[in-house]
Design a protein that fits this description.
Layout (H helix, E strand, L loop, with lengths): L6 E2 L12 E5 L5 E8 L7 H5 L6 H8 L3 H13 L3 E6 L4 E7 H4 L3 E12 L7 E13 L7 E5 L8 E2 L2 E3 L6 E3 L1 H7 L12 E6 L8 H9 L6 E5 L11 H17 L4 E6 L4 H12 L7 E4 L1 E4 L5 H16 L3 E5 L17 E2 L7 E11 L4 E7 L11 E7 L18 E4 L2 E4 L4 E7 L2 E6 L1 H19 L7 H5 L11 E2 L23 E2 L1 H9 L2
Amino acid sequence: MDNTRLIPLRGSERSAHADARSAGAVSDSERIDVTLVLRRRNEIPDALVEGPETISREELAARYGADPADIDMVKRTAEQHGLTVTEADPASRRVKVSGTLGQLRSVVEADSLTKVTTPDPAHEGRVLEHRQRTGGLRILPEWDGVVMGVTGLDNRPQARPHIQRIEAHAAHTSYSPVDLGKVYRFPQATDGSGHTIGVVELGGGIPEGDLDAYFAELGIPTPTVDVVEVGAGSNTPGVSLRADGEVMLDIEVIGALAPGARQVVYFAENSAQGFTDAISTALFAQPTPTVVSISWGMSEDSWTAQGRAILDAALADAAAMGVTVCVAAGDDGSSDGDPTGQAHTDFPASSPRALACGGTRLDADAATGTVNSETVWNDLNGSASGGGVSRKFEQPVWQANVGVPDGNGQGRWRGVPDVSANASPRSGYRVLIRGQDEVIGGTSAVAPLWAALTVRLSEALGRPLGMLQPVLYAGAAPGVGPDGFRDIVQGDIGDFAATPGWDACTGLGVPDGQALLARLASV
């Protein structure tokens, strides 16, 4: 098979996983599903991404989706090389093709592709066998400038759940999500009715009976929860307690704080392909969701440049359609778990299009909602809120005047997080997992909390909120926080300490939902 004419795909270079162990060769007869992401017919204007205007899925596809001529060319050339085209979506600009590795090599080839085993980030002590590529990708010359990214050859785990479990007796205190709705003054006379929240999961499942039992304990009707399995993903409870805990934490927090909202849970394979396909599937569903909640991520350095660009572009689609995307900022302090201890931010939270959600440790009276103290979450055992300064995303205009530190003399970069809420497992969330009462923490709890708050704000205002950051940051300045937040000024996450105003520990602070509603109503 002649593949000597294939040309490099920019931004596709990938390193080996640090803990990879060889597991043999990948057979040419192995069947692989690959996602090709195409260029836009026109770039989305920043004003549409960041402004109050929104457009429908159909309008986005017509203005900023893939050109039908590009889709036809890619489909035709793929089929000419013996591949099967299984999906072509102009709105999300994805063409999915399937074939054996031997067939795929005629249109896309990795410098090196082998089988390896690596630790499962969602299940301590378990190893996974998967394909790993190193070096760059090469594609058909006809695809040059048209195909912007290819995912699926390498299916290594691309994210970990940002969840912290603790024995209930070890928690200093704990709260139901309903308690936290009182603490953070969620808007009254709202419950999320008429709105949909997409929830992205890269493992785990919903244990039978847990939802009915949990919401019966809270005295709340069980919310509507639908399941969509994306690609190789599946709703599979019982394999990993950590992953099941993530799934149930997300659903139970949202269901307790926005019981009237419909939740759609998207289960996908934990890989770059699965992660991006799940987000795109959620964003372009009917009806368009009000919010998407994501509690999975990994250091932005662990992603390829094309992988970050593909997912970031999907988040731009979300903003244009008026969808708010809430993303956990990480649970490993300023290093984001890097073994060298150097500062890193977590992706996709580090995308400027994501509402990055950091964490605090809370001491409050659950009965009255009165806060005794709230500090940066750092339990001094490696368990701390993620945050810092991105090395991959430039500083957005709306964050330019809040005091984000410079990027080690390398210019001005995106600061993380934007917002926060309770996350310490020592002041954790009471949830039910596999029939057992648990106390759970992590910024995994903050993303669904902010997702629930966002739908209730949207319900009260009668409109989608889209990308919230430009509005939330308005009025902020170094040492000065904007209205609608309670500033957190004590604590650190390692390399960064809390200060008045925005900081790289808790962002703008924790929400005062009723004050936020009043502020948003005046915009």
